[in-house]
């Protein structure tokens, strides 16, 4: 049988990795897919030919991505350009031309996925996006197919390697955020502009996608709450450890009685949980289904070859489904498009979690009692409290406390009232906390 | 669209769980599959009606399993009887009658899978067996589809919950094997005859299946090396911990230069590895692919609902593929049947690993030197050695050592020579060791 002819948009890190995997594992991939896969046409504005293994196996290389999606010979388009535009236009044009699409573009899917999937369905083609979430970990397939029997209750994932590297270094070496970030940038783990990673936007893209797959809701990136790790202090990492917790930057999607939570934020996790022990640039996603219980998926969340692993897995899936009835394929979001739910995504104020609070207050009688009574008035009960002895001659003291679960709206009021006290000088540090056991 | 009519063989633990999941999650499963799934006909010799939620949703219940596989109304047969016979005859008859099959029967697939898959291919039907390995963890799907881009290098899995529960208790509480086994039996984690679990036969069934999926070789259960955990002493658990290791009962499938290793045995694993921290009855499988690197899959490996989760996921897959071209479905072993390899499975003597050795010898000058020289003559280098001080008045001493990697055949010779020494009284305790990093 003739090899399948594929078009490739982008020859950067992941594009180069995809060429390498398709070249070095060509025989094994064909043994699995039943057909060879040939990159017939690639387009890239700029690329470094010397850094790509297997470049000579590409049919032809041009600089116009639209020429690839218009080429009638191409059956499947791999989009590895990233960003919203022109990725969106290219993908929609490829679909319009009846081509299947494989993409690693989490921003594109999180923001324009509803439109793209509708167009693909209309035209009877598949859009694969395994590579968009958690790199090489086959988490899309697990959520969409492997756990299809389950009512998913929640997902909690370490889905940004840069952030996890920074938090791991802060804990292992007692270093400051800014210090580790600078090193991560030097090592190439963090971009010159680290906002996407450390402020949680990248994680929010991925969480949005997983939330839709888990709960059968349309993609709603704009409703995902996002808080970064840049305000975590070295002392918070230490205090958390003293209490038996580690701080991880988690993406959490949860079904509550009132709606769906989609939130990315630093989180205290009990240190014995596997998720608390996922270190460095690695990713992991913990999924709680009603039948299966907790399952965890761990692996490299980024990098040329791990991401290419997911791109090529999607390619093999598409090749296997080339002859299938379009109406009986696995739906893009796991649920049939006409069976998506309109369950509301909650505002963060409507979310209930436990909290770690760090308060810096005057070391004088009655302050602690005043804070405790504010919490009590807001219906917040305290699970643990630690007061750090002030150094000699110091007049301020640090209080650390863990609370039971409470609505964020109530906690916001409590914090505002605590910060209004004369004896409290700095803003209260608040980190959400999850046991990941329920 | 009409619901798909399914026949169910067996209403024991997993059968009951399957009925419960299909009942309680019926709406959500139909939203995913695009069609309802109806258990039209079930057969069981004996069952406890009061323990099954959703029993009233089954069309009819009889006691003749063959009547189910002969019923022309049934499109998919779920085999949850277990064992070789009559499961094999039932599955083959269902296939002959053009029905798809979903099974949780690891023994059946490991031993008769080649015959069953050939018959299914001939008849154009699918045999799903996700539930046969690691319960609710979607590891079959991960190996067969999610990692399809990879040349798989090795797999190491905790794939028997009973054994892992026993080893976890031994470590946490310093208890003996026999003691913990008795408790596991009382708790229902271990069978009255625990051989299948603690001697590694159950794990060998599962490993055989994973090895074929990873390396594209026919199922060869009879070639899988199997060693149980019943000889592990409480002291071995302690000594391993002192050296920074934990003992886990692993199934390991590995591709070496000379062939394929399939082996189940107790294994020392560095304590910082996630796999070393998988405790209690939980399962986990670590897979090393050349592109993706290491990925890990964790969850419940047994139990009514977790196993039912995998059974129903397969059902959904089959429902989705009812209209597909049989020649373009995912092949049963991940590789096209005519592309399976004849790479030999190695004998254990041909396998290379590192070792933990515990030797009980006379406390007299020269004994250690004699042992070290035997190891040296066999080309075995020692990585670490610990001599336990003998108690007052004791004349024997325990030596514990870790070796570098060496062929098992050489180690067998070395151990035979050490055991032949007059100063060595008990058989040498040997536990294989893996870093799981390469």
From TrEMBL, chains A, B:
MF-aspect GO terms: homoserine dehydrogenase activity; NADP binding
Which is an annotated Pfam family here? ACT
- Residues passing through the membrane, by range: none
Note the CDD domains from the entry: ACT_HSDH-Hom
In which residues is NADPH bound?
A: 106
Q: Please tell me where L-homoserine binds in this chain.
A: 191
- What is the recorded name of this protein? Homoserine dehydrogenase
From which source organism is this entry? Answer: Thiorhodococcus drewsii AZ1
């Amino acid at each position: 049988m003739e090899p399948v002819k594929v078009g490739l948009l982008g020859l950067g890190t992941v594009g180069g990795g995809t060429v390498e995997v398709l070249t070095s594992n060509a025989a094994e991939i064909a043994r699995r897919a039943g057909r060879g896969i040939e990159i017939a046409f690639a387009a890239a504005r700029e690329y470094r030919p010397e850094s790509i293994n297997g470049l000579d196996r590409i049919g032809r290389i041009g600089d116009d991505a639209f020429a690839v999606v218009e080429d009638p010979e191409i059956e499947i388009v791999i989009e590895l350009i990233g960003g919203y535009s022109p990725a969106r236009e290219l993908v929609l044009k490829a679909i319009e031309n009846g081509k299947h699409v494989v993409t690693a573009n989490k921003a594109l899917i999180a923001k324009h996925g509803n439109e793209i999937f509708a167009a693909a369905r209309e035209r009877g083609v598949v859009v694969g996006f395994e590579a968009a979430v958690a790199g090489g970990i086959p988490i899309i397939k697990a959520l969409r197919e492997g756990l299809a029997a389950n009512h998913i209750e929640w997902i909690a994932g370490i889905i940004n390697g840069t952030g996890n590297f920074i938090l791991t270094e802060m804990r292992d070496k007692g270093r400051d955020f800014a210090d580790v970030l600078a090193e991560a940038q030097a090592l190439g783990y963090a971009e010159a502009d680290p906002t996407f990673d450390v402020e949680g936007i990248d994680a929010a893209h991925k969480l949005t996608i997983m939330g839709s797959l888990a709960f059968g809701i349309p993609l709603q990136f704009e409703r995902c709450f996002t808080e970064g790790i840049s305000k975590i202090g070295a002392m918070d990492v230490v205090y958390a450890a003293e209490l038996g917790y580690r701080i991880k930057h988690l993406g959490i999607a949860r079904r509550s009685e009132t709606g769906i939570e989609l939130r990315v934020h630093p989180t205290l996790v009990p240190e014995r949980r596997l998720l608390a022990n996922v270190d460095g640039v690695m990713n992991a996603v913990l999924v709680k289904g009603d039948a299966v219980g907790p399952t965890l998926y761990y692996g490299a969340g980024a990098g040329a070859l791990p991401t290419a692993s997911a791109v090529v897995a999607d390619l093999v899936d598409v090749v296997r489904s080339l002859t299938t009835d379009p109406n009986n394929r696995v739906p893009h979001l796991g649920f049939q498009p006409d069976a998506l739910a309109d369950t509301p995504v909650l505002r963060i104020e409507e979310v209930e979690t436990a909290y770690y609070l760090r308060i810096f207050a005057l070391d004088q009688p009655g302050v602690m009692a005043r804070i405790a009574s504010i919490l009590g008035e807001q219906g917040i009960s305290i699970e643990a409290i630690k007061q750090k002895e002030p150094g000699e001659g110091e007049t301020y003291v640090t209080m650390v406390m863990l609370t039971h679960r409470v609505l964020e709206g109530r906690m916001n009021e409590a914090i505002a009232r605590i910060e209004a006290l004369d004896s409290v000088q700095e803003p209260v540090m608040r980190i959400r906390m999850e046991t990941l056991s329920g």
